[in-house]
């Protein structure tokens, strides 16, 4: 049942009305894109992430057209800070939640090493084809590397976190569904990358946020400051 719920949540991402905003955004890697980083030999927008046939198997992903790099995300790969604490009573639960979230999909490009990997099912079914013209981006804020240690925590049950610190976090608007309009995933209301980020863009907006962060509005949807 949990896998079905995750698949439905992933499919809901594809149904976003902002889907058309991908074109010419930084997530448009097609050769006709106006983005700086793009392919020179493939002129399709969706194919760099999705395929209608022969997608990756064994993944909780929407017809994914990329290989997931490396192995599973481990406890040592999760958020870690000397000054900001992640309250979590069961790290193994978070590890499982992260691996079953959208994080591995995001890292199949944003790990700084996999952007140039061959597509599983490129246009014209030509077998594994490496997009030409792309280069892996390293050393900037859009690259996670192979861990999430210095990135905002994900994989936690937001309701449980809020219940443990009611002075620090706003309550869910709808239990296990959203907080202030930001979506939570699975039956347990877990925070994913796409709680804050809309991968299909908002008119080419960067960094693909689900809402404006003017005045830290996105941050204070969850955090009481």
From TrEMBL:
* Pfam families the UniProt entry points to: Paired_CXXCH_1
User: In this protein, which residues make up the domain named Doubled CXXCH motif?
Assistant: 193-223
Annotated signal peptide: 1-20
Q: Does the keyword Signal apply?
A: yes
The record's section on InterPro entries has:
Multihaem_cyt_sf, Paired_CXXCH_1
Q: Which key words are in the record?
A: Signal
User: Methyltransferase: present as a keyword of the record?
Assistant: no
What name has this protein been given in UniProt? Putative CXXCH cytochrome family protein
């Amino acid at each position: 049942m949990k896998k079905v719920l995750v698949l439905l949540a992933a499919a809901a991402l594809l149904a976003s009305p902002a889907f058309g905003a991908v074109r010419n955004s930084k997530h448009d890697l097609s050769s006709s894109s106006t983005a700086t980083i793009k392919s020179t030999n493939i002129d399709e927008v969706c194919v760099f992430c999705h395929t209608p046939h022969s997608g990756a198997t064994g993944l909780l992903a929407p017809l994914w057209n990329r290989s997931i790099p490396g192995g599973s995300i481990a406890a040592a790969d999760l958020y870690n800070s000397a000054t900001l604490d992640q309250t979590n009573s069961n790290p193994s639960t978070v590890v499982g939640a992260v691996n079953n979230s959208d994080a591995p999909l995001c890292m199949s490009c944003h790990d700084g090493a996999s952007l140039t990997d061959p597509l599983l099912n490129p246009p014209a079914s030509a077998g594994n084809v490496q997009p030409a013209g792309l280069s892996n981006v390293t050393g900037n804020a859009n690259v996670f590397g192979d861990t999430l240690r210095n990135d905002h925590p994900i994989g936690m049950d937001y309701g449980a976190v809020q219940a443990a610190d009611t002075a620090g976090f706003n309550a869910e608007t709808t239990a296990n569904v959203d907080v202030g309009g930001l979506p939570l995933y699975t039956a347990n209301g877990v925070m994913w990358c796409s709680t804050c980020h809309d991968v299909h863009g908002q008119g080419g907006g960067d960094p693909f946020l689900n809402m404006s962060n003017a005045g830290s509005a996105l941050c204070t949807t969850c955090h009481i400051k």
